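Lecture notes, unit on binding sites. The following record was shown on slide 14. It pairs a sequence with fructose -6-phosphate.
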Amino acid sequence: MCGIVGYTGFQDAYDIVINGLRRLEYRGYDSAGIVLEDGNNKLEVEKTKGKVEDLVNISSQLKGKAKIGMGHTRWATHGVPSDRNSHPHLSNNGKLAIIHNGIIENYDTIKTMLTGKGFTFKSETDTEVLVNLIQYFMDLNAETDFPTAVRYALNEVYGAYAITVMHEDYPGVLVVGRLGSPLAIGIGDKEYFIASDASPFVEFTKEAIYLEEGHMATISLENGVDIRTITENSKIIPEIQKLKLSLEQIEKSGYEHFMLKEIFEQPKSVHDTMRGRLLVEEGVIKMAGIWDHIERFKNANRIIIIACGTSWHAGLIGEYLIEEYARIPVEVEYASEFRYRNPIITDKDVVIAISQSGETADTMAALKLAKEKGAFIYGICNVVDSSIARITDAGSYTHAGPEIGVASTKAFTAQLTILSLIALKLGKHNGNLGNADFMSLIAELDAIPKKIEDVLSSTHELVQNIAKDFVNATNFLYLGRGYNYPAALEGALKLKEISYIHAEGYPAAEMKHGPIALIDENMPIVIIAPKKGHYDKIVSNVQEIKARKGKVIAVVNNGDTQVSEMSDYVIEIPETSECFSPIVASVPLQLLAYYIAVYRGANVDQPRNLAKSVTVE
Ligand code: F6R
């Protein structure tokens, strides 16, 4: 999704904005732009379709010229990716510049009104409409100052936005606003930073304000940060947060891609997610978020898990875990479907939202609906203080650290870790999981980081060799049963999103109800076949595939013979309880997708058309 960077202070604004945009590249984008105030109260804009480096090629003359500026990476919504549609956009009088993340839903009506007043538009964007609406309010009454005009305009629009606006007659001033899309303000010593997340300014300051929904701020060196509500203009005293993010966490540390780095971080990220929660020696799971609301969970009619994409796959495994160990009925819903199908929700329901970014618009909207209906809302987010984390009644962070690669890897295994902890904790508490089983399961869970470490070292080279044989594949099937059916869905999603090879995940037994028709000697089939978990049935499925000459890549436990003998390629992983096996089995599948994509020359960290946090519905 779009990335926003702004700066006002004493340093070269060009360098700060361009480096900030580079940090936000992971969000996914198709064009980039910058605007600076050149010291003579003139705005200078450069923008282009393409990457930040393309912007650098056309804008380096701006270097050293300004102490205030802002930049944008655009992920197209209204209007194709093009130079014209790129941000920043200027108002008709050329005095105002805006950058925007989100969608102005009523832009058409406003555009018609402005056109009637003589305004013209150079782009197809909703954003250009907004900046002209601000000009309109300033033109209407000479007394209306810049921040007031922004506020008037924001009161006229609906949709989702994070905006930053500059006015050439207001040197040193940035006006920002937020509804639905995130925006952080970094507070330095005689300098201020604006960004979609803290990564562009983390090396300059550790203090930040996360602008709240429906708030705007006027930021200037003279008067600091003045925060108001957009509707009432009421003054807000902000909470200044201390950032825990470090520069090292958001750099590649010698890996070729963030995705590979994040795959290799999983022993640590899973361990960090359990740290302080899973206390094996004491035989307890400590999770304040669950414990403080244990009666809500205990008395829940059902648990509804809502999420999108990879997080939805984690939710499916969560369903298996919670139903097996806590015996509470669980439904898993795509957030985008849940919201629009008039679901039955009562105040006896518990809704668990899973989101790495904590900003996914569909998940957010579904949560708001469930909240309105009185359900208890629990969040599983990776990004601390994200929008979803803030609207939930309670929650648990996955402490996976920043995930920069667009394809989710370590966030997924961390989500599975949290869901395992929740299921075991609830099961133990409500008496469905006996003490002996509980103790053995927590010991097994505690051993998972080491098992991931073993898988990474034992399969890394092997998977690279397997990947080489499938660089030209056009289709893939991923099969699994039980807990590993969602793991198969996730394996297929990883491959398709970064390599652009069509891939489908299926429950292995369903194969004979359709997909078996696709199998011939050209069809690679990844099959997840750990010992614990319907192994004999999987053996039959492999036989069915081999009878049709399909190419089997099997993920099996160390020392496996039966499936291995029938398979063309074998990836061995250590044994664990069936319920935790997706955490371990996912790791070689992530590597497989990664290396196939790398060998095909794909942009692994920023796959085409995808965004890291999807802040539009
Ligand atoms: C796939 C992927 C997406 C996200 C989905 C939800 O690798 O990353 O499918 O899982 O967009 O995002 P979050 O978890 O941030 O709500």
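Take-home: The chain has a mean pLDDT of 95.
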